Amino acid sequence: MITGVVVALLSVALILVGLPLFAWWVGGRAIWGRLKPHVETDLYREMVRRHGLRPAEIAQVESAVTWGRELREERLRAAVVEWAQLHQATERQRRDRRPALRTGALLVFVAWGTFLLGYVVFAVAQGRWDDAHWSSVVPWLVVAAAGWLRQRGPARAVRLNRGPPSSTGG
């Protein structure tokens, strides 16, 4: 009985002292302060201020940058081009700071996709259709599509909005 009480008191003390210390330690990690003043500007606020964008225009410009769409209005086209170029430059700087991280993440992603494809192929070949469920492939496809669109969108936005508007533009 005494042992149980001692263990309970030590557990409470650990929670009361250890948990706040752990939270303080985690809060001090650099990952929580990625946006560093005077190093990385807040791109969103900077573009809104510089181009005098209204709320509806902000949504249009941001969507055009993200998805690589063309806009008709010349002022918004200039905002799209500048925003996309600054976004690309920021992404390039982040990528250059940790090149091994991107390579490692890509290798893990490709290995995951290869394993998943092999698993589905063998499950289907062995007649185990329940093991080759769509929910095992869809997350991989969603992550792949999101990464591809993230890379493609800003470059396409610059290409479409740099010159005069095309006759088919949105």
Indicate the radius of gyration in whole angstroms: 25 Å
Order of helices and strands: HHHHHH
Shape: flat
Ends distance: 76 Å
What's the rounded overall pLDDT mean?
A: 82
Main sheet overview: none
What structural category characterises the helix and strand content? Answer: mainly alpha
The total count of strands amounts to 0
Q: List unreliable stretches of 5+ residues.
A: none
Tell me roughly what share of residues is in helical segments: over 70%
Q: What amount of the residues lies in strands?
A: under 5%
Query: How many DSSP H or I helices?
Result: 6
Structure description:
With 170 residues, the chain is mainly α. The chain is 72% helix and 0% strand. The protein contains six helices and no strands. The protein has helices at residues 2-27, 43-51, 55-67, 74-97, 99-125, 138-161. α2 packs antiparallel against α4 (74-97), α3 (55-67) packs across α6 and α4 crosses α6. The radius of gyration is 25 Å and the shape is flat. The mean pLDDT is 82.
